[in-house]
Amino acid sequence: MSHLFEHHGAPGQGYSQPAPVMKAADIPLPTALLRKDLPRWPRLSEPEMVRHYTWLSRRNFGIDTGFYPLGSCTMKHNPRVNEVIAQLPGIADIHPHQPEHHLQGLLSIYHEMQYMLEVCAGMDQVTLQPVAGAQGEFTAVRCIQEYFRLRGETQRTKVIVPDSAHGTNPASAAMCGFEIVEIPSRVDGRIDLDALRAVADDTIAVMMITNPNTLGLFEKDILEASSIVHSVGGQMYYDGANFNAILGITSPGLMGFDAVHFNLHKTFSQPHGGGGPGSGPIGVKAHLAEFLPGPLVEKRTPVGDESKHAIDGAWYGWYEPEHSIGKVQQWHGNAGAIIRCWAYYRRYGSGLRTMSEHAVLNANYLRHAIHKATKKAGVDHMVVDGAEAVVAKHEFTLSLGPAKEAFGISAMDVAKGLLDMGYMAPTVYFPLVVPECMMIEPTETESLDTLDTFATHFAEVLQVDAETLHAAPITTPVRRVDEVYAARNLCLRHPFDE
Asked: Long-range contacts: 443-449, Cβ < 8 Å, 24+?
């Protein structure tokens, strides 16, 4: 096992540098800022450092090492050309505080990305500032909150959230001080319009919902739901986590939404997972545009010396919306993520519709392939559809409830068994409305062979006895962990010997 802190090189230092031009004594520092002891850093050579991180990387699972069907968190291939473009010197080597005439290329990309997302979502204005989907949710809800505050509608203190919603939806609304009103789904997994009508009144500020929903089902009554909320003066918010299923086919704007967030790190291939990097821009209709966090990028005719640096006769510069809620991130968004996603869009253009069509096709193919494989193996009685739909969208749910009831095999056991087969496990126990839920999203970038092989291995895992599955995984670098203990006993730093 490799471990940084097992290395003890030359005392006091781990590298060689030329003698400093100035001595420490020549740089007076307050005594309170000086260390009493040497920092407890490892002392390693460069080869030792490289070997450690290379060893560490081999213990991680990623989309580049295997199939990653993580439901609700689109994990697909990131074309390497995106990395090349994001690392160009004129993009990677600039600072956000440089003057605008130094940033015309980047600002033109930002402006084009704003416009592209506006078109894709059917919105009127976009800010690229939020750096995560959940931050995008929070930002959009805050804009809606300020919209009502300016109108004097302070009685709007509630946010409607379906019981199948992503957990970040009620969390984001609660962070803004709203009361959460949960409404149930129908038996078929879709929103209950009667339940929505029962809670819709002038205390409602916004309804937060994604479409397709978290069961992978398209909300066919979404226009009616939007009409109900709008009839009492509320706003509609679209969680863009499942945007990968509808891009180029329909849009939140056509469904009656007033605001939307995008997960650029999911829909537009920006590498996702491991905590980042993320990008969660939001788009809004015109009546909410003046509340967006600034600055935004505008395109105008150059004035005076600006003509020397203009691009095709246009000048790109920052501007602040009139009633902006203020910054939600210290700079101007996650520039690296935005550039990668811009490159993806520029490369595929109208082909983004085909991307969504293939994502839906792959999900439905895999759903049926799993049923076919489990039937062939004689274990189809152990798993059922989480939502009995004729057609799913980009993801689907299965229930391991029968396996749990008959054999004591849980969704978690099956997920751990899939790790032993060389796959990243699908999402388990979400959405909560499906018992022993397993949510699977293959994405559009996986081949037919990969999907068929996964379906076969899924059926093979169900044939493993319960005792063996309870101990899975046994082939991974880290065996099965006590997740409850880990969650309750966080270890956030290296346990130094005191």
From this structure: 443/69, 443/74, 443/75, 443/76, 443/244, 443/359, 443/362, 443/394, 444/76, 444/244, 444/355, 444/356, 444/357, 444/358, 444/359, 444/361, 444/362, 445/76, 445/77, 446/67, 446/76, 446/362, 448/365
User: CA–CA separation, 364 vs 392, rounded Å?
Assistant: 6
pLDDT digits (tens, 9 = 90+) for 347-400: 888 789 999 999 999 999 999 999 999 999 999 999 999 887 678 999 999 999
Helix (H) or strand (E) holding 198: helix 193-199
Q: Which tokens sit at 219?
A: 């909300």
441 vs 190, 323, 424, 496, CA distance in Å?
19, 39, 12, 41
Q: What span, in angstroms and rounded, lies between the C-alpha atoms of 257 and 279?
A: 21
Rounded Cα distance between 176 and 173, Å, is: 5
**CA 11, CA 2: separation in Å to the nearest integer?**
20
- How many percent of the chain have pLDDT more than 70? 95
pTM of the model: 0.91
In whole angstroms, what is the distance from residue 341 CA to residue 343 CA? 5
All structural domains of the chain: 4-58 (no CATH), 81-351 (3.40.640.10), 352-485 (3.90.1150.10)
Length of the chain in terms of residues written: 498
Give yes or no for residue 498 having a pLDDT over 60.
no
- Report CA 360 to chain centroid distance, whole Å: 19
Q: Which region among 10-14, 214-218, 407-411 has the lowest average model confidence (pLDDT)?
A: 10-14
**Contacts made by residues 383-391, CB under 8 angstroms, sequence distance 24+:** 383/462, 386/189, 386/215, 386/434, 386/437, 386/438, 386/439, 387/188, 387/189, 387/215, 387/216, 387/217, 387/434, 388/188, 389/188, 389/189, 389/215, 389/216, 389/217, 391/360, 391/364
What gap in Å lies between CA 228 and CA 214, rounded to an integer?
A: 21
